[in-house]
Design brief:
The structure holds 2 protein chains of 2 kinds. Chain A is 26% helix and 24% strand. By secondary structure, chain A is α/β, with parallel strands linked by helices. Chain B contains 2 helices and 6 strands; from the N terminus they run H-E-E-E-H-E-E-E. Classes of the chains: A alpha/beta, B alpha/beta. At the A-B interface, strand 13 of A face strand 6 of B. Strand 13 of chain A pairs parallel with strand 6 of chain B.
Chain lengths: 242, 81
């Protein structure tokens, strides 16, 4: 059976935008089996905006799995927003995994916000001041948790959902000077070590949709401004047919 | 006179940190008396709000608002992987 994954990130819903995105989700069950949200669902990460997100994505005819982004952390309420979403039946990943039965296949999704640091040869190291060490260590810890979650994942199809990018391919179009704030190769390294069928991320509004990890795993930047459509649909079945 | 690079950086910082905008992906360029804003935003109200915050952060400059509103299409195609 085919497995159709709809994905979008960076919808940046404000309190003045209730219902606007929802209108694009009508009939999504005809196009996809599951919807993945790649973070930056709000503008400022307030509880009021979290409520808009909940109303926009609740009670869809297909399962919804999300991660939060940096904007969703801005008001220091990420746990509260995640709890509101979970209450409404939306799975929210925080460096862990969820497994769904879709058309008789087990779809495993691993992920979380991710973080920055840069890409191999042009990245920060855990050296020097405590602030730099903390920055790099945050990404390392996330990558380690993803590696563990992927290692323990028992599923037929494996997808990684992130906000920050694991590769620089999908950042093309962004100023190279800000790549270290857009993602980290440590995320890709962890995923490549354990294997996955697809990686989805957002965050880089001026980037490019399609990329690949060093080990050949497909990466898709599903930030709304990059897609230019309400969501991307990616069909996984291994033989190129849907 | 303040160097245009510092003015652009101040405006970019204001757009990111001002609670009304919190926009990180806007390109800001200052050329003479003109301030150019480029990038994509989600709606027309936001486009105007960003220009207002930029104008407050750089009074005296003429704001050229070249931001575009993202046109969200209904997905028609799927990619087979």
């Amino acid at each position: 059976m085919s497995l159709r994954i709809a994905a979008v990130g960076d919808v940046h819903l404000g309190t003045d935008m209730g219902g606007r995105y929802r209108s694009h989700l009508t009939g999504i069950e005809e196009k996809a089996d599951v919807l993945l949200l790649a973070g930056d669902l709000t503008r400022h990460g307030t509880l009021e905006e979290g409520e808009v997100v909940v109303e926009e994505f609740r009670d869809l005819p297909i399962p919804v799995i999300a991660v939060l982004g940096n904007h969703d952390h801005h008001s220091d309420k990420p746990a509260e927003i995640a709890a509101m979403m979970r209450e409404a039946g939306i799975a929210v990943l925080h460096d862990d995994a969820v497994v769904l039965d879709v058309n008789g296949e087990r779809l495993g999704v691993v992920g979380g916000k991710g973080f920055g640091g840069g890409f191999a040869g042009k990245c920060a190291s855990e050296f020097g001041e405590p602030e730099i060490k903390a920055f790099v260590n945050h990404t390392k810890r996330i990558a380690d948790r993803w590696r563990t979650a992927l290692k323990e994942l028992e599923a037929d199809r494996r997808v990684v959902l992130s906000h920050y990018s694991p590769v620089n391919d999908t950042l093309a179009g962004e100023p190279p000077e800000i790549y270290p704030f857009l993602g980290s190769y440590l995320l890709a390294e962890a995923i490549d070590a354990e294997g996955a069928d697809l990686i989805l991320h957002g965050h880089a509004h001026m980037g490019t949709e399609k990329g690949v990890t060093p080990a050949g795993i497909r990466v898709r930047n599903v930030a709304l401004p990059v897609l230019g459509r309400a969501y991307g649909v990616y069909c996984l079945n291994g033989d190129g047919r849907c | 006179m303040e160097a245009p690079q510092y003015v652009a950086a101040r405006v970019q910082g204001a757009l990111a940190e001002d609670e009304r905008t919190n926009e990180l992906g806007i390109r800001v360029d200052v050329r003479g008396e003109q301030l150019f804003l480029r990038g994509q935003v989600s709606c027309e109200e936001r486009r105007e709000l960003i220009a207002d915050v930029a104008s407050e952060a750089a009074p005296g400059l003429v704001v050229r608002n070249e931001l575009t509103v993202v046109d969200v299409r209904t997905p028609e195609e799927e990619e087979k992987l």
